[in-house]
Amino acid sequence: MNISTAFAPPFKLVAPFFVLGVMFFLISILLMFGSNLETLHYLNSSTLAWVHIFLLSFVMLIILGAMAQLVPVVLEVGHCAVDLYYAIYPLVIVGTTLMAFGFYSLPILLPFGGTAIFIAMSIFLIETFLTILKVKKINFIIGTIIISNIFLLLGLIVGIVLALNHSGIISVDSFKLLKAHIFLVFFGYVGTTIMSMSLILLPMFWLSHSFSWLYVKSAFYILCSSIISMLIFSFLNINIFEMISYILCIISLLLYFVQIFVIYKKRVRVEVDIYFKSMVFSYFSLIISLIFLITYLFYENDNLLISASWLILVGFIGFLIAGHLYKIVPFLVWYERFSMFVGKKQVPMLNDLIPKKSSNFQFIMSSIGIIIVTIGLLTNISEIYKSGLCFLTIGVIFLLKDILYMANIKEESYVF
Predict the structure, then answer these.
(1) Angle between helices 274-299 and 319-337 (to 10 degrees)
(2) What keywords would UniProt list here (predicted)?
């Protein structure tokens, strides 16, 4: 995979995505203090509100910001209309806020919030597809981007239907459509995007090379089959396809983990930095969540499902994003503010831009928090659950502090 920074947009365009994303990560953790473990369920309105705040205002904002940088870099073509990204994050914030209030207390706001999100994502999709049209040759990575964006579009359409149903405007079988929505957006877009971007970022940051893509390609195709199977179940009511979908999804995630292990074994860089620690904890969370999910298929204990969901969302995706932010933000800052001085003046290394003590403290507090919250969810003990949230809150505050620090580094502080 050829990587070129010649087509990357300015840092000021993507910085708000990262900063606002981490801010809403903190808000989502603070909101969890109000959760009642006795009524915690994925169909509960407060749970739905929290999931949308976490996924839309944190996960999706970070992914959209990262894609703004990575898409032109990977495609080696310039954005078709890069300034459209300035309209995306305000629409996402407004849409998420309206949807959150809609789930909590005013269902009539859901269609308005959903429409704002739909417009924001449509801008992203249209701009991305127009940019892809400039590419002369489609490879595996570009193919995954195309397919993941198609899943996102379908997921948005289903989401609008669900919002209209929840607000009472129309009446549909929301339970089955909800599963289709989750699989299309979470696994179809977020999952496939993580798979494809891992093949770019992990080898680049670990200096891995000469490894086979067999496992991740298989994982991608199996995950796509899982999503299609869930769509068949959702619209044709053939129950066997639901179980097939769950099994294929677990197999896909296991194959993805094998691919990550292959990349890890082929690495050249052995430095145990904040990125390495975050990746290890992230994939450890993924493994434990898969064990919980497999166990749930046999015992159907809701605590297992909730704990697995927690580990996938905050343990796996949360640490995956945090670790990459400690690499992406310093790189973008260095490239924009220091690269022009190379060979002329003394410039800092990328590691010099990372607050090491603060980032390590963030990792320790966040990882302890994830583990304690998981124990609290498994045992259904509120005191353990909330004590874990206290540790995690401190960790996310330090993550936000570190992102703001790195984003605001000035040339005069390092160039001599």
Answers:
(1) 150
(2) Membrane, Transmembrane, Transmembrane helix
Return the CA Rg of the chain.
21
pLDDT in tens, 244-302: 998 999 899 889 988 888 888 877 766 778 988 999 999 999 999 989 988 988 887 88
Considering its fold, how many domains does the chain have in total? 1
Mean pLDDT of 129-139: 83
Burial label for 328, CB within 10 Å (0-12, 13-18, 19+), is buried
Instruction: Evaluate if residue 195 carries a pLDDT over 80.
Output: yes
Domain that holds residue 313: 271-278+289-334+346-409
SS3 category, 270: coil
Which helix (H) or strand (E) segment holds residue 186: the answer is none
For residue 370, tell me if it sits in a domain: yes
Return the closest-CA partner of residue 19 out of 117, 93, 72, 98: 93
**Residue 396, both tokens:** 């996310």
Encode burial over 363-384: b for 16+ CB neighbours within 10 A, e otherwise: bebbbbbbbbbbebbbeeeeeb
First to last CA, the chain: 35
The sign of the torsion formed by the CA atoms of 208, 212, 214, 217 equals positive
Please, what is the angle between helix 85-104 and helix 110-132, to 10°?
150
Is residue 298 in some structural domain? yes
Give the count of beta carbons closer than 10 Å to the beta carbon of residue 336: 15
Sequence letter at residue 42: Y
Q: 204-237, pLDDT tens digit by residue?
A: 777 777 778 888 899 999 999 999 998 888 888 7
In a domain, 163, yes or no: no
The model carries a pTM of 0.89
Residue ranges in 300-318 assigned as alpha helix (H): 302-310
Tens-digit pLDDT profile for residues 315-342: 999 999 999 999 889 888 888 877 777 7
| Whole-angstrom distance, CA of residue 301 vs CA of residue 315 | 20
* 39 assigned to some structural domain: no
HSE, side-chain direction, 13 A CA sphere, residue 82? 18
Q: Is 231 exposed, middle or buried (0-12, 13-18, 19+ CB in 10 A)?
A: buried
Instruction: Give per-residue burial for 130-163: e unless 16+ CB within 10 Å, then b.
Output: ebbeeeeeeeebbebbebbbebbbbbbebbbbbb
Single-letter code of the amino acid located at 292: F
